[in-house]
Amino acid sequence: KELGDGGDALSGSIYSVFPEPNGTFWLATSQGVARYAPPLWRTPAPVAGITSLVHAIAEDQKRRVWFGCTNSLVRLEKDEWKVYPIPRGELSDYFRTRSVCPLRNGRIAIGMYNQEHILIFDPERETFEKVASPSGLGIRMISPRGDGTIWAQVASADYQLSRLEIYDGTTFREAVNLA
């Protein structure tokens, strides 16, 4: 019987407990045998306080894993977790699963919700910087290109002007005019 399945194994006298690695154990009772195994997924203690949506996950060149949360950026590096709160008044684009993009210069581009800019996170300085397209068009969506650069869809508020730009971590350049 599995613990919690409504069985009778836990209602009698406990005769023996046999522990296994990772928190699993068996109980021998007067009513039968029961086994407990912890859930496969458990939230790591360092990030248990994060209550916002995790919408994007990406790995950078240094094999660090970055998690885009609505109001924070989270890093996992060699079993160590670190949470970086996104600046006040900003929310990452939680509708986009690819809106956290490692750049080849080591920084992380983050697509923002309802903003005209993206945030660039510098892991060395642990700082965020707002970056806008020099075209004056708002950045509506970003996505990684696979070479350490990103696609940036830029458009006017009414989408009458729209195009794809490539951002390399330093400069934007027009790639495709969509208008």
Descriptive report:
The chain is an all-beta fold and 179 residues long. The chain is built from no helices and 15 strands. The protein has a four-stranded antiparallel sheet, with no helix packed on it. It has a four-stranded antiparallel sheet with strand order 8-9-10-11, with no helix packed on it. Strands 12-13-14-15 form a four-stranded antiparallel sheet, with no helix packed on it. The protein is elongated. It starts with 13 loop residues before the first strand and ends with a strand.
Topology:
Elements: E1 14-19, E2 25-29, E3 32-36, E4 54-59, E5 65-69, E6 72-77, E7 80-85, E8 100-102, E9 108-111, E10 118-122, E11 127-131, E12 138-144, E13 150-155, E14 162-167, E15 172-177
Antiparallel strand pairs: 1-2, 2-3, 4-5, 5-6, 6-7, 8-9, 9-10, 10-11, 12-13, 13-14, 14-15
Question: Which descriptors would you attach to this protein?
Answer:
179 residues; mainly beta; 4-stranded antiparallel sheet; 15 strands; 0% helix; elongated
Order of helices and strands: EEEEEEEEEEEEEEE
Shape by Cα distribution: elongated
Low-confidence stretches: none
Q: What is the end-to-end distance?
A: 63 Å
Mean pLDDT: 90
What's the β-strand tally? 15
Tally of alpha and pi helices: 0
Radius of gyration: 24 Å
- The helical percent reads under 10%
Biggest sheet strand order reads: 4-5-6-7
- How much of the sequence lies in strands comes to over 45%
* Main sheet summary: 4 strands, antiparallel
Q: Could you say which structural class the secondary elements and strand pairing correspond to? A: mainly beta
